[in-house]
Amino acid sequence: MKLKLSVVCSLLMTFFLFGCGSTPNDIVISSAPGVCVNSKYPSYESGSFPINTNMPESSPYCMAYTITNNNSGENSNNIQVYHTGLQLTYSVESLAVSSPTLWDFGAAGFTPGSGYAQTVGGLTLFDPENCVTTYGRYVNTLNKNGGQCTFYLQVTTESMPIGNYPVNLSINYTNGNDNYYLTDSFHYHVDMIAGGNFTAPDKYLAKYNGNSNNIASPIFVNALNPLTESVQLLARGAIGNIYAYAGESIYSLGAESKLVALPVISNPMPVINQLKGDKLGNIFAATGNGIYVYRPYAGNNSSWMQLTGGVSGNVVSMHIESTNVLYYSSNQSNLSQIESCVYSVSSSGASCAGLNVIFESANGWVANNQALVYNSYGKSLLFGATQNNLSNVYSGSSTYLADSGGVINQNGALGADAFGTIYAASLGSVVTDYAAFSNVLLANMMSPVKDESGGYLYGKAHGTNVRNFVYSSSVAYMNLFVYGDLLYSILNPGGGYIAYLPMIIGTNSSSSNIFIANNVWSYIGGFNGSVNDVVVYSYLSNN
Hints:
By secondary structure, the chain is mainly beta. It contains 1 helix and 40 strands. It has an 8-stranded mixed beta sheet with strand order 19-20-21-22-26-25-24-23, with no helix packed on it. The relative contact order is 0.11. The model is unreliable at 1-23 (pLDDT under 50).
């Protein structure tokens, strides 16, 4: 999309007054959704942003902007981006957000400083041509009669809450005599994708985009690869796709809702207990026969490779920390253990090194599928386990987080918020069982999660999803999502298959920051059927 922007002279929100001159101002800014910095600069700044190591040339995470100087004439018609350069403004939960000035510090050749940033709300500026980075060793000059430069915006972390965010873009520039600014806008979408066994709106996949009616919509996939079984597992790939396991095959789902069947892992296809994506774009499958890795960025050469180096047998859950540390739990012949290793993936194979046994038991202890996560705040590994037909949550190698007020039948994805609180789903056998537990006081005790009015969530929960987001240093919010089957609360007895609870930062008796309930449980409707797994997925567009 190309916009020819007129001269605008106004008192900007940065409080610098710019004058209007008579010099021609024929400047065009063009946006190209899906175009990544790797299209022209492969592996750009991958040391600081590992996602760029294998990022393709095109991804729904990306947006390219090109500024072209079509001025003509003899007097000062060359231009430069000036002073504060690029700024973004948007609104989250009715709160207006104005970004710091965005600079690409690596391209400019200096370290970050106060009032300047490269990433805001999960969106990162890559400016290899110093197009909008206004200080440093080199600032680009766009000569008259078609001089141009391109900068790139890219989602590098899934940090924004679920919703659709119109983002306004403002760029200050000068021709040496007078100062002007360009404006444009794009949309930053954050959707929740749900997989399960639905009778509506579509059979197996739906998405929720944060609309005010709390209604999910179907994902109508292409007829060439229809799903024949319910979606059991989902994973988000670091370079832009969603991956779904539907019992017999694993599929890749792109932004255009086109399903592509991945190559089979082996014949016969092993049972898959979990799918995970790392920060480099690889996809991991925990199976009854070890761990397999898929490299989607390898194009036609993509295939599943078995991870070697001690990983074998029935692997039930995984967690990937940093860019190359893998935690996994395996169950073999009544012996269960959790291990970690440093992995490497290349065209020649995938392997683990530095194998470390974190916990093992020969007393019938069995880890639960998906229930393995690293608590970055508490620096401990969390896992769900079943022993003697009772299920619960462990923190570290041996700390048992006992329940209070109800038995945790934990058998799904765990969550941990920014302040160390642990959240667990409980697969209750009847609708009078509590569906969600947490150690909200950061104690060694798991209690049912209650809302602001004292209401609890009941039913069969398959997992939790924690969405942390911080708007400023003093205001933090979060949504806790619980998904499964037959979820309801006394205050809102209608029930559903995904429930969420808004949370806000609070302080406990030890003056530690925690998230506490800020509202009542609400339901996301629009489909009918059990939700087995959810992922959160972002993309950029012009609308």
